[in-house]
Amino acid sequence: MGLLSSLALIFLVGEVHASYLDFGIPPSNATVDVRVFNVVNATLINELHASIIEPVLPGRGAITFPFLAFLVEHKASQKRVMFDLGVRSDPLNFAPSISALFTDGIIQVESPGRDIIELLQVGGIALNSISAVIWSHAHFDHIGDMSKFPNTTGLVIGSETGTSTYPQFPNASLLESDFAGREVTKLNFAAANISFSGLKAIDYLGDGSFYLLNTPGHLPGHLSALARVTPTSFVSLGGDTFHHAGEARPRPDFQKMYPCPAHLLEETKASISTDYFWSPKSRDGAFDLHSRAQQFLAISDLPDSFTADAVQAQVSLDKLATFDSDGDFFVVVSHDISLRESIPYFPASLSNWKANNLKERVVWNFVDKANPAFLFSPM
Asked: Could you name the domain of life of the organism this protein comes from (predicted)?
């Protein structure tokens, strides 16, 4: 084979199978292990999820989300941190502005009530072995109950995270006990000198194994994480950068890298409503997924949206979605119901996702009409 032909082949292969190096991520042999807890599942009723994602099709007013938490352990030092905690087991003890969502039945938590503290202890993880808790942001379904952690466990938050607490501020959603007696670190992304896919990054453990990324928009101070689980593969912990896989997918680059399985592709022709979703090659009653370039769902910009700045949040989502379209990254957000039956939970590890071909097997779950994430036709 001639030199020019060889270079052309390398270029083409590289174009299809992009490397994490193309994102500017430095190489490193330092890794972490990521394990996932499904703290609880909760259902949002009365079309409350219209304040999260749009559109809401007729009969699809109620939606169930998992509340995920992540244990991250540094392989070399065995240092442990938590990324998000899910919801506390006694939600009526939240600040009144939050507890009302539960007393009014707008958010219904599946039984039995439990929290990450119980799950860690049952799993043999000592609370004093957790050096820090990292909140992706300060919404109630991510902060758990910090008062149950020992004071030796620090709290890490984004620089723009509000820290007003109830009862000093009657409308505040946080409690004094969330911060009392512990070291609280506000990340300074303004001083960050590295970025990946346009997202400012902080090398949290200092060896390239675990980065925190600035992903603003959903809430001031919102951040996500990038965990290197092998020297060349990563788990992207997206927090609430998006809530449903349909906000991030399909996108052209994603479809090129991860074609929809043939059986689901055939199913979507009839299952996805062409009254609400369209693509250039669709026909009335016959949806065409291949020609759909735009993601299915949008971040809600309603006045009562859970998202503080929908435009900024969309830009953060677009940047994070570049990882989703790459073979070296597995993106997991905190409420992806499409993964509920297929993701490995603690004590199993998520770190072997690439060797186990997990991403290829699950990323199109959300268009399977048997999956609880399916929202693309009227009920």
From this structure: Eukaryota
Q: Give the separation between CA 295 and CA 287, rounded to whole angstroms.
A: 14
Each residue's pLDDT tens digit, 132-171? 999 999 999 999 999 999 999 999 999 999 999 999 999 9
3-state SS assignment for residue 168: coil
Nearest of 198, 269, 196, 256 to residue 227 by alpha carbon: 196
Q: What is the predicted pLDDT for the residue at 14?
A: 38
Cα–Cα nearest to 312, from 182, 192, 226, 198 = 198
The whole-angstrom separation of Cα 333 and Cα 373 is 13
Cα 248 from Cα 325, distance rounded (Å)? 10
Q: Domain 30-367 falls in which CATH fold?
A: Metallo-beta-lactamase; Chain A (3.60.15)
CA 345, 350, 352, 358 dihedral sign is: positive
pLDDT at residue 9 in the model: 33
